[in-house]
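Input (structure):
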């Protein structure tokens, strides 16, 4: 039922760190293409970090230098290491992952349930 399971959110003081995890329930997910998005109250969902099919990693300007995306293929898990957290980082963070078939080609995107990150000033 649940395709992507997120964990690691919580309450932290400004300047602190958190690590988010997103575990894929099935090996059919394209782990190398998993990414992170976030949505603050009253705001649209925005890209935080992701990896393209060409192997390039993209970070939002607001988090570049502070956040790092990584993965463990053996565990079917992607991580988001967040350092030097700021109050403006407060949001619900969502994991995104596709299932891709190349012959014939098809792609379906899935989302995690979301995990709350709250950064106090």
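Output (sequence):
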């Amino acid at each position: 039922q649940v395709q992507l399971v997120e964990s690691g959110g919580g309450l932290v003081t400004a300047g602190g760190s958190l690590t988010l995890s997103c575990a894929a329930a099935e090996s059919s997910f394209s782990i190398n293409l998993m990414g992170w998005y976030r949505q603050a109250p009253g705001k649209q969902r925005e890209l935080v970090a992701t990896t393209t099919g060409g192997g390039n990693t993209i970070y939002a300007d607001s988090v570049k230098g502070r956040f790092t995306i990584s993965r463990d293929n053996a565990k079917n898990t992607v991580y988001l290491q967040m350092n030097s957290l700021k109050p403006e980082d407060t949001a619900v963070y969502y994991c995104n992952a596709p299932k891709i078939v190349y012959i014939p080609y098809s792609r379906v995107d899935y989302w995690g349930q979301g995990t709350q990150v709250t950064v106090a000033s």
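Notes: Residues 49 and 59 are 4 Å apart (CA to CA). The chain is about 0% helix and 55% strand.
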